Amino acid sequence: MFLQILSVIGALMVLSAYAMIQGGIWRELDAGYLALNIIGSLLLGVVAIADQRVGFILLEFAWAALGLIGVVRALKARKSTAAVS
After folding, report:
1. Could you give the angle at the alpha carbon of 8 between the alpha carbons of 6 and 12, nearest 5°?
2. Mean confidence (pLDDT) of the chain
3. Which of 7, 35, 52, 59 is surrounded by the fewest CB atoms within 10 Å?
4. Is the pTM of this model over 0.85?
5. Maximum distance among all alpha carbons in the chain?
6. Containing structural domain, residue 22
């Protein structure tokens, strides 16, 4: 039961982030979008490990890694914006 709850929370986080992007509320480098994506993917990855679902393990941890790349891009963008100001 705990894993089911964890998977629903993770899925809702990823889907909410995507909905915010599609709705124009957030942009791809916004902290909220990145946080929901990374944390949601990690939660789903934990569930995939518990269920021994190799394909989903790969998918979710790759999704989280891509989110971390977004964090690096966001930090670089902020740094370059601050340097210009």
Report:
1. 120
2. 93
3. 52
4. yes
5. 51
6. 2-84
Query: Residue 82's pLDDT is what?
Result: 82
Which strand (E) or helix (H) includes residue 40?
helix 31-51
Rg (CA), the chain: 15
The torsion angle over the Cα atoms of residues 45, 64, 12 and 27, rounded to 10 degrees, is 180
For residues 21 and 28, the answer to whether their CB atoms sit within 8 Å is yes
- In angstroms, the CA 83 to CA 76 distance is 10
**CA 35 to chain CA mean position, Å:** 6
57 and 45 in contact (C-beta within 8 Å)? yes
Per-residue pLDDT tens digits for 33-64: 999 999 999 999 999 999 999 999 999 999 99
Q: Is residue 38 within 8 Å of residue 10, measured between CB atoms?
A: no
